[in-house]
């Protein structure tokens, strides 16, 4: 059967149980991807698209919510995986395969986080059936049929563009390629009575991971020829390519970050990695104040485990800090009201910077002895609380730190060290409970 003659419904009736996609699918015009290391021109002659199987129930987590829909910092895990692919400019289309009853939730997620180049199709009762539906969906429109298909479990969010490039290039050259990792435990075979039969020599084996890549024809033909038993019990696409197309996949060792979220503990690990990736850098805005500049200098020397950039404002070239994954520490003198901080919040909102993950903004209020008037203290906490609750709606987490400028060098040094520790913890933990609080350093 010539690939070009096969229609989606022909394949559907024979090999994959799901109905035709309930949603016609959305292929919005995709903006050029964000920064990546391989220009899209490299792939102009062989378009690359992606299938993200996300139709499972995540039983092994023991949770009601399938793990791909568990939220981290207000966003479902699958949105992080989609983001990892949509920012790669040489990837044309992303097909997400979800259980029928999750199609609407998936569409809402795509709308909420403005994901692009994404189409949603219904999954099947097994992973192979889901992947098959995704592959068929990619081939449905001849003009959009890719030359290379990357298949990647939706619950492996930490995938890097460089490794995707290696897999795509190997698949283009050899027909199939897959990620592998060294085995952590030794593999053993058991007798039917549950005793050891024999153990495998661990050094000779590897764990098969994702992403995997295939030329479209190879993975299409593999699914066209495989058996019901493959669909029901199989777990390895590379095996199908070898068994039914004689295509021997190139195996490429990937980084440890390719691991799959499977158990509940993996969700905690994933959240910690996501938080760590968002907490690496902060931009200190001094407003041109001499005291603020010296505080910034002290912060740079302090134990802050965050990369600091120090700028007087976010104007001109400094506006670039609004676009990256920077957090902000705005230092202002005792007389400057919250309006300066508000300007930073407005700039962040205008850039929609917090759409995909919360941005931390810390207002450090410098005060001197005669400034600590009762009225000053009472007025500002209320003001920052109001401002913070408005900012929170836009996923911006605003915290306050009151720093008393002591003339005593030792006391000042201690205060600066406390500001560094508090700021570092706020950026790392992003605690909702402390949003809008004016903490005393
Ligand atoms: N019928 C299925 C089963 C699994 N998957 C997807 O395949 C990937 C890897 O499978 P696995 O980790 O086993 O996910 P689950 O099957 O959901 O997990 P469990 O076995 O614990 O239920 C996941 O992204 C999962 O959503 C799928 O698309 N369709
Ligand atoms: O078997 P599960 O459905 O838990 O996970 C799928 C994995 O087996 C699969 O992603 C890799 O082994 C590569 O095939």
TrEMBL record:
<feature type="domain" description="D-ribitol-5-phosphate cytidylyltransferase C-terminal">
    <location>
        <begin position="280"/>
        <end position="419"/>
    </location>
</feature>
<comment type="similarity">
    <text>Belongs to the IspD/TarI cytidylyltransferase family. IspD subfamily.</text>
</comment>
<dbReference type="InterPro" id="IPR034683">
    <property type="entry name" value="IspD/TarI"/>
</dbReference>
<dbReference type="GO" id="GO:0008299">
    <property type="term" value="P:isoprenoid biosynthetic process"/>
</dbReference>
<dbReference type="InterPro" id="IPR018294">
    <property type="entry name" value="ISPD_synthase_CS"/>
</dbReference>
<keyword id="KW-0808">Transferase</keyword>
<comment type="function">
    <text>Cytidylyltransferase required for protein O-linked mannosylation. Catalyzes the formation of CDP-ribitol nucleotide sugar from D-ribitol 5-phosphate. CDP-ribitol is a substrate of FKTN during the biosynthesis of the phosphorylated O-mannosyl trisaccharide (N-acetylgalactosamine-beta-3-N-acetylglucosamine-beta-4-(phosphate-6-)mannose), a carbohydrate structure present in alpha-dystroglycan (DAG1), which is required for binding laminin G-like domain-containing extracellular proteins with high affinity.</text>
</comment>
<dbReference type="InterPro" id="IPR029044">
    <property type="entry name" value="Nucleotide-diphossugar_trans"/>
</dbReference>
<comment type="pathway">
    <text>Protein modification; protein glycosylation.</text>
</comment>
<keyword id="KW-0548">Nucleotidyltransferase</keyword>
<protein>
    <recommendedName>
        <fullName>D-ribitol-5-phosphate cytidylyltransferase</fullName>
        <ecNumber>2.7.7.40</ecNumber>
    </recommendedName>
</protein>
<dbReference type="Pfam" id="PF18706">
    <property type="entry name" value="ISPD_C"/>
</dbReference>
<dbReference type="GO" id="GO:0005829">
    <property type="term" value="C:cytosol"/>
</dbReference>
<comment type="subunit">
    <text>Homodimer.</text>
</comment>
<dbReference type="GO" id="GO:0035269">
    <property type="term" value="P:protein O-linked glycosylation via mannose"/>
</dbReference>
<dbReference type="GO" id="GO:0047349">
    <property type="term" value="F:D-ribitol-5-phosphate cytidylyltransferase activity"/>
</dbReference>
<dbReference type="Pfam" id="PF01128">
    <property type="entry name" value="IspD"/>
</dbReference>
<dbReference type="InterPro" id="IPR040635">
    <property type="entry name" value="ISPD_C"/>
</dbReference>
<keyword id="KW-0963">Cytoplasm</keyword>
């Amino acid at each position: 059967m010539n690939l070009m003659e096969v229609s989606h419904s022909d394949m559907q009736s024979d090999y994959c149980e799901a109905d035709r996609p309930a949603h016609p699918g959305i292929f919005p015009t995709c903006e050029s991807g964000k920064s990546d290391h391989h220009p899209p021109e490299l792939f102009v002659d062989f378009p690359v698209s992606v299938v993200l199987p996300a139709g499972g129930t995540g039983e092994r987590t023991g949770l009601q919510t399938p793990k791909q829909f568990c939220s981290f910092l207000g966003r479902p895990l699958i949105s992080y995986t989609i983001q990892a692919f949509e920012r790669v400019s040489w990837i044309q289309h992303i097909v997400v395969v979800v259980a029928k009853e999750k199609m609407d939730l998936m569409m809402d997620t795509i709308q909420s986080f403005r994901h692009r180049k994404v189409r949603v199709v219904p999954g099947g009762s097994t992973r192979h059936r889901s992947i098959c539906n995704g592959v068929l969906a990619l081939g449905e429109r001849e003009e959009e049929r890719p030359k290379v298909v990357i298949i990647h479990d939706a619950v492996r969010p930490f995938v890097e563009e460089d490794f995707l490039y290696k897999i795509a290039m190997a698949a283009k050259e050899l027909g199939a390629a897959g990620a592998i990792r060294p085995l952590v435990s030794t593999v053993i075979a058991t007798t039917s009575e549950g005793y050891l039969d024999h153990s495998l020599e661990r050094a000779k084996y590897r764990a098969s991971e994702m992403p995997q890549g295939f030329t479209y024809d190879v993975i299409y033909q593999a699914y066209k020829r495989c058996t019901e038993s493959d669909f029901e019990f199989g777990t390895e696409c590379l095996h199908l390519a070898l068994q039914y197309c004689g295509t021997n996949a190139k195996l490429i060792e990937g980084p440890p970050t390719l691991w799959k979220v499977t158990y509940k503990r993996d969700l905690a690990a994933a959240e910690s990695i996501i938080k760590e990736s968002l907490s690496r850098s902060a931009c200190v805005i001094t407003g041109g104040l001499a005291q603020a500049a010296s505080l910034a200098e002290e912060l740079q020397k302090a134990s802050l485990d965050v990369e600091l950039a120090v700028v007087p404002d976010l104007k001109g070239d400094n506006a670039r800090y609004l676009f990256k994954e920077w957090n902000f520490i705005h230092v202002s003198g005792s007389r400057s009201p919250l309006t300066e901080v508000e300007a930073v919040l407005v700039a962040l909102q205008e850039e929609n910077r917090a759409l995909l993950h919360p941005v931390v903004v810390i207002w450090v209020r410098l005060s001197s002895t005669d400034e600590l008037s009762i009225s000053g203290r009472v007025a500002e906490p209320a003001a920052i609380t109001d401002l913070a609750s408005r900012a929170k709606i836009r996923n911006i987490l605003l915290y306050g730190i009151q720093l008393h400028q002591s003339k005593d060098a030792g006391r000042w040094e201690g205060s600066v060290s406390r500001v560094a520790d508090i700021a570092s913890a706020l950026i790392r933990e992003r605690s909702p409970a402390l949003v809008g609080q004016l903490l005393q350093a």
